[in-house]
Design goal:
The complex is a heterodimer of chains A (483) and B (508). By secondary structure, chain A is an all-alpha fold. Chain A has 19 helices and four strands. In chain A, the strands form two sheets. Chain A has a two-stranded antiparallel ribbon. In chain A, strands 3-4 form a two-stranded antiparallel sheet. The relative contact order of chain A is 0.10. Helices cover 75% and strands 4% of the residues of chain B. In chain B, α14 packs across α21. The chains are: A mainly alpha (483), B mainly alpha (508). At the A-B interface, α13, α16, α17 and α19 of A face β1, α5, α6 and α7 of B.
Chain lengths: 483, 508
């Protein structure tokens, strides 16, 4: 047996930093005990920022590592930046909440770091095995954080639910991956691409495997009809955890989704497009309709996130560079809108008790005008009304859809966005038109204020300077189609 | 002055005013007073600047003037620019917006005592969006302004409106949003057809749109504009929105927001899709005739003054859509004049209703009667605007209706005849209302104590009265800048339909 040369680990430098940082912080926390939680949280944020800096320094050039199983390119860089920002911000806004709820444990930031490592690996996966390793690393950490408030039945239930359904979807994905391996004889994305683009019709086994993997990934991005866990887990998990779930894992899973379909299976666009179109339509419709009756803001946001995945999948369904750019712009803007909304939800505390009802926001515009304005901006953005950033997110995916002759999908998209505008507006209505029921506890922490300010400003004034995000997304999308 | 970015100033100065209002500190009364003054000065300066536009406007060309262009996003093959400019068609809509905003801010001076700061901010932001719609020459920019209007208006109806305000605010928002999102898709399709989001380019190159595509795109634009106008049968949001909106909101709603639809038809549907416009003219004529006759009859049965004026608005806008799609020079000019006139007159009528509402907190017709004995000045003002609304010669309403009927007669006599029924239906409901409110005996005790117009209220109506009479007696000062642009538009449509071998309907 020939001896392999040592693997090229340089492309995975930021993942290594994250993993090492998580281990170091775990030891540090275990040694210094519960009181070190705040320090560990700040250090975890520092580690995430270092990883981001390293990724940015490495740039968007295409590098293969670990014998081609691991890839970094402009696409990976863009998605990793989003994931790292999302993770860092959720640790930041969750600190105070966890302290108030008596669940401030140093394991939380460590688990977030581990989950983030998994996401980074997912984004860079260039092989079915890397894909699965990254996904499971992420999942295992996420199961634990979902049940993080271990004295709460709701939280434990959320964790268990997430675990059972997550394991099921991982199983399907693994089954699909083994079918693909069985019928192509390889797990490397590049070799699969060569095989399926050979002009011969791929065997049914490959297609069935493809569908199974798509189903598994659809679970992870919570696309309808594989969304059932989302509202329950969102509602049950502690709010900072939900904020985390709503952003980083979704972006990472979508990145994996895109790379998996575009790189190895790009030539089979005609085969998988109909599946994605169905997922997209079903998600948009359910996200719009099911959220109308919600009284709990966390459940509302859960259905809202299902709807947004539907819009993002429009871009994927086109299978073009413009479409992928649309998805990336969408996810970048979604990050800001969603993190901002969750930051407001984390402020919903009266007399030390956390509130989750939409009606608890009544009259917020008079008791806390700044907070109400911020949430109103996010709500208008989520419903896609210009001049907020949410409009531009939708603009780019619809643009790609019209270009790819998917006008029907775009029409369904705009109609459901009108339906969903109803429930976003309802939040605005409760805050602005209803009589106040009393202010939330003050003062807000400096972290929350800062996050709210930045996300609100980006969401509202995105139109002035859309260049950086759109330009980055454009480069990232082109990188995926470069070969 | 020509080197100044005048259009940007007119568009964005209100936002500067908003920033100043946000900076106001102190207790509530101080903030409210500062907010009022800042809003007043901002809107006055904006109005004066927009007058400069009129004086500097060159009426001899159909080209866009005061053009400003800056690169906005140039990435990945999808470029859109900051491109502003006005021609004869849009010039007066800008002026209409600035004068009405100025007047509504005065009208709200004492009436709005609750969340004054937010109220003024909402109106200034609204002004930016409305002026932006009329000035933008890039589709994405246009759409941002066009849909952005919904946010402040939603808040104005919902926060300062009447008892059923929430229902009305939602109905207004969702109705108009549904129309405009379809237009967004059409805008994207236009982009792929022309390769640019530049409106000026698309307007001049209707040949880039094949006939079958024109029909689809025309329908998508129609969905948006028909709801805004509003045309029968998608008009039902309007009476609700008017009844619940505060007076100032109603003025802007009737005065400017409805014009967005009519402006859109003239600006986009006609020059970009001339074949589809010709093809769908019978549809427009049918809907317009129904709007004119049906809503006039509905107006007759109203017991609420605001609802009555709302239905009369739909009838008047029916005239506008009819004139627009008659596509003769007289009719289109008439449509524009009619929109301007209706903007001023219906705005003034809502202010008149507001005067009564401030005193008695109702707009039910039956609650009033014999007001002439206590409020002679008010009776005079209401009379002038009522007569202008029914199109009495010498008022602005006459010029618009006359030009439209003149222009349409040559194209479709039957349509013209049907629409002309409004000439006696209009006076029926308007004068009937006037008689019930103003004349008769003063029976109710609370009416005896009614005070006549205050100095502030008189100041409100004087400029509007001047405009109405000026437009009616010497319309040429308004028609001259409009004419060249409209002639150019009409010739463009005629040439395109002729080239395609279609025959525009003419006398049967």
């Amino acid at each position: 047996m020939p001896v392999l040369p040592p693997p090229d680990i340089a492309p995975a430098l930021s993942e290594i930093i994250l993993a090492a940082g998580a281990m170091a912080l775990l030891i540090f926390g275990a040694v210094s005990g519960e009181k070190s939680t705040r320090t560990v949280s700040w250090l975890a944020i520092a580690v995430l920022i270092i990883a981001l800096a390293v990724s940015l320094a490495q740039g968007g050039e295409r590098h293969l590592g670990f014998y081609g199983m691991f890839v970094t390119d402009a696409f990976a860089l863009f998605m990793k930046a989003l994931v790292l920002i999302g993770s860092a911000v959720t640790i930041l806004i969750g600190m105070r909440y966890n302290e108030d709820q008596g669940i401030a444990r140093f394991e939380f930031p460590v688990l977030v770091l581990l989950a983030t490592t998994g996401m980074m690996v997912m984004i860079s996966a260039n092989d079915l095995i890397t894909l699965y390793v990254g996904l499971e690393l992420q999942n295992l950490a996420l199961y634990v954080v979902a049940a993080f408030n271990r004295d709460s039945t709701r939280s434990s239930e959320a964790g268990l639910k997430y675990f059972v359904l997550g394991a099921l979807s991982s199983g399907m994905l693994l089954y699909g991956a083994s079918l693909i391996y069985g019928f192509t004889g390889t797990t490397a994305f590049s070799e699969i691409a060569t095989l399926v683009s050979g002009g011969t019709v791929p065997s049914a086994g490959v297609l069935i495997g493809l569908v199974f993997v798509v189903v598994g990934l659809a679970f992870k991005v919570s696309a309808v009809p594989f969304h059932m866990w989302t509202p329950d887990v969102y509602e049950g998990a502690p709010t900072p955890v939900t904020a985390f779930f709503a952003v980083a894992p979704k972006i990472a899973a979508l990145a994996l989704f895109i790379r998996f379909l575009v790189e190895p299976f790009g030539p089979l666009l005609g085969e998988w497009r109909q599946v994605i179109v169905f997922l997209s339509i079903a998600s948009m419709v359910l996200g719009a309709v099911a959220a109308i009756a919600q009284e709990n803001i966390k459940r509302l946001m859960a259905y809202s996130s299902i709807g947004h995945v539907g819009y993002a999948l429009i871009g994927l369904a086109t299978g073009t560079a413009a479409g992928i750019r649309g998805v990336l712009v969408y996810m970048a803007i979604y990050l800001f809108m969603t993190v901002g909304s969750w930051a407001v939800i984390l402020c919903m505390r009266r007399n030390g008790r956390m509130l989750e009802g939409i009606s608890d926001l009544a009259g917020l515009s008079r008791s806390q005008p700044g907070l109400a304005l911020a949430l109103a901006i996010f709500m208008f953005a989520l419903s896609g009304i210009p001049p907020t950033a949410g409009f531009f997110a939708k603009l780019y995916v619809f643009l790609a859809a019209i270009d790819a002759k998917l006008a029907g999908l775009a029409v369904i998209g705009v109609v459901t966005s009108v339906v969903s505008a109803f429930y976003y507006l309802r939040v605005v209505k409760v805050m602005y038109f209803d009589e106040p029921v009393g202010a939330f506890d003050r003062p807000l922490t400096a972290e929350l204020k800062g996050v709210l300010f930045v996300t609100a400003v980006v969401t509202l004034f995105f139109f002035i300077l859309p260049g950086p995000i759109v330009g980055g997304a454009d480069a990232a999308a082109l990188a995926l189609f470069a070969r | 002055m020509s080197h100044w970015p005048l259009l940007s100033l007119v568009t964005f100065l209100p936002l500067v005013g908003t920033a100043f209002i946000l900076m106001a500190r102190g207790d509530e009364a101080v903030v409210a007073r500062n907010a009022r003054w800042i809003a007043l000065w901002t809107s006055l300066i904006v109005f004066v600047l927009s007058l400069v536009l009129w004086f500097d406007f060159d009426p001899s060309t159909a080209d866009f003037q005061f053009v400003e262009r800056a690169s906005w996003v140039t990435l990945g093959g999808f470029d859109f620019n900051y491109h502003m400019g006005i021609d004869g068609i849009s010039l007066f809509f800008v002026l209409l917006t600035t004068i009405l905003t100025f007047i509504t801010i005065i009208s709200a001076w004492e009436v709005i005592q609750y969340r004054v700061k937010e109220f003024m901010i909402a109106f200034l932001v609204l002004e930016t969006f409305m002026v932006g719609v009329f000035c933008s020459l890039d589709f994405i920019l246009f759409y941002v302004f066009f849909e952005g209007v919904l946010i402040p208006m939603f808040l104005i109806i919902g926060v300062w409106g009447g008892s059923n305000r929430i229902y009305s605010a939602f109905k207004f928002f969702l109705y108009t949003l549904l129309g405009s999102v379809l237009m967004l898709l059409a805008v994207l399709a236009v982009y792929f057809q022309t390769g640019t989001t530049d409106i000026e380019y698309a307007l001049a190159h209707s040949e880039l749109f094949p006939a079958y595509l024109q029909k689809w795109l025309w329908l998508a634009f129609f969905a948006s504009f028909a709801v805004k106008v509003p045309m029968w049968p998608v008009h039902t949001w309007l009476p609700d929105a008017h009844v619940e909106a505060p007076t100032a909101g109603s003025v802007i709603l009737a005065g400017v927001l409805l014009k967005l639809g009519g402006y859109g038809f003239i600006r986009f549907s006609l020059p970009m899709f001339p074949l589809a416009s010709t093809y769908f003219t019978p549809l427009i004529f049918a809907l317009s005739a129904i709007a004119v006759i049906y809503t006039s009859l509905v107006a007759l049965a109203q017991i609420d003054m605001k609802k009555l004026i709302a239905y009369s608005s739909i009838a008047h806008m029916g005239f506008v859509t009819m004139g627009t799609f008659a596509v003769t020079s007289e009719a289109v000019q008439g449509a524009i004049i009619q929109m301007l006139s209706h903007g001023i007159v219906s705005g003034a009528l809502f202010l008149c209703v507001g005067v009564l509402y401030d005193r008695l907190h109702t707009h039910e017709i039956a609650r009033f009667g014999g007001l002439v004995h206590r409020m002679p000045a008010y009776a005079f003002v209401l009379m002038v605007f009522t007569l202008a609304a029914v199109g009495l010669p010498g008022t602005s309403g006459f010029i618009g209706e006359f030009l439209i009927l003149l222009g349409t007669f040559r194209v479709n006599t039957l349509e013209c005849t049907l629409a002309a029924t409004a000439l006696f239906l209009g006076p029926m409901y308007m004068l009937y209302m006037y008689r019930r409110v103003i004349f008769g005996t003063l029976t109710r005790a609370d009416l005896r104590g009614m005070l006549d117009l205050s100095a502030r209220e008189k100041a409100l109506f004087v400029p509007l009265l001047i405009v109405v009479i000026w437009m009616g007696v010497y319309p040429l000062s308004f028609l001259r800048p409009i004419q060249v642009s409209v002639d150019h538009l009409v010739q463009q449509v005629a040439a395109a339909t002729e080239a395609a071998g279609m025959r525009r309907a003419s006398l049967p």
